[in-house]
Write a structure and sequence with these properties.
The chain is an alpha+beta fold. It has one domain. About 20% of the residues lie in helices and about 15% in strands. It contains seven helices and 15 strands. The strands form five sheets. Strands 1-8-7-13 form a four-stranded mixed beta sheet, with no helix packed on it. A hairpin with a 2-residue loop joins β10 and β11. α2 runs antiparallel to α6. The protein is globular. About 45% of the residues are buried.
Length: about 325
């Protein structure tokens, strides 16, 4: 009898050890790896969008990623086969408590807050105007995205939503950053079910990291490969080079190791990882207010960027403008 009771007690103990691990798995999957840096990323490079490879592909903008040994490197924008009915909210760098923190992008039913960054090609800083889902098919707005209408017939033209904004600033808040906070609607979108970056997007970043020419210390803000037609394809006809840097490049005054900051207080509850998408949006308003100056002995890359703008709600078609370039030319430059 004692042996039987001891066995039951041991089995119960093992079960209690297993349950927390099973319960915690879904929540941990919602948290992406975070980066916190004391120097801001370079300006977004100027480049054209490659042609959409075919139906069902959605554009994911290029961005500056971080390496602790060599600093910022460019991850080319690319077209990816999207989950049906889902839209991509790009990641962005935001100023938080004396450092620039990377907020990972995600897939969801609507486009949430992405720092007010003008990534171009439909991502003018708020929302997305490059196309829309109609049932199980994605229709492209050819006024702002490049599509071969011979092979892709689900298209429309809406020129009223073109964003005339020449800003190439790559971060939100801080000195010279974009001044934007999430709208109530974007906060609501952040609470919707989300999906992390696809394997193809992760591969794109991994391959970009392996190519030294993508590092800002080498290309000075104008990467050789600015965009690709398909993820992982860094050669051939679908590769687009940058036309120029978005702003004069300034080499950081400190090394990447010195620039690496600890995780902000709001992220430490997740073991040094950033917040999940919903919490990130709810706290984004705190990231652009009082902490407007960078940490000492740093040189943000965007001090000479054009004036920041205020973000507009996603349902407005024209955010604040800087300059007045031709309507279609701007979106094709980035």
């Amino acid at each position: 009898m004692r042996t039987h009771s001891a066995f039951r007690f041991l089995a119960l103990a093992v079960l209690l050890m297993i349950i927390p691990a099973v319960v915690s798995t879904p929540s941990s999957a919602q948290i992406a790896l975070g980066i916190s840096v004391r120097i801001g990323p370079p300006a977004l490079p100027v480049y054209e969008q490659p042609l959409c490879p075919g139906p069902g592909y959605l554009w994911t903008p290029g961005y500056w990623a971080w390496d602790d040994d060599d600093g910022y490197y460019w991850v080319p924008g690319t077209w990816v086969v999207a989950p049906v009915g889902m839209l991509w909210t790009p990641g962005y760098w935001g100023w938080v408590n004396g450092a620039y923190v990377w907020n990972a992008g995600y897939w969801g039913p609507h486009v949430g807050f992405y720092g007010g960054i003008n990534y171009g090609f439909g991502y003018g800083g708020a929302g997305f105007v490059g196309g829309e889902w109609r049932g199980g098919a994605f229709f492209y707005n050819t006024a702002v995205v490049r599509v071969d209408t011979v092979h892709v017939t689900d298209v429309y033209v809406n020129r009223t939503v073109i964003v005339n904004n020449t800003s190439h600033v790559a971060f939100n808040g801080g000195e010279g950053g974009v001044v934007a906070r999430p709208t109530a609607q974007e906060v609501a979108y952040a609470r919707e079910p989300h999906q992390a970056a696809l394997a193809a997007q992760t591969q794109q970043e991994h391959l970009a990291h392996q190519d030294r020419s993508n590092f800002a210390s080498v290309n000075h803000g104008a990467p050789r490969v600015a965009a690709t037609a398909r993820p992982g394809d860094f050669s051939g006809r679908g590769v687009v080079a940058s036309r120029s840097a978005g702003a004069p490049y300034h080499a950081p005054a400190i090394s990447p190791r010195e620039a690496r900051a600890s995780a902000p207080a709001e992220s430490r509850n997740n073991g040094g990882r950033p917040m999940n998408a919903a919490n990130r949006e709810n706290n984004a308003g705190n990231r652009t207010e009082s902490n407007s100056r960078p940490a000492q002995n740093t040189r943000p890359a965007e001090r000479e960027s054009k004036p920041a703008r205020e973000a507009k709600p996603a349902n407005q078609s024209k955010p604040a403008q800087h300059g007045n370039p031709p309507k279609e030319e701007h979106e094709k430059d980035r």
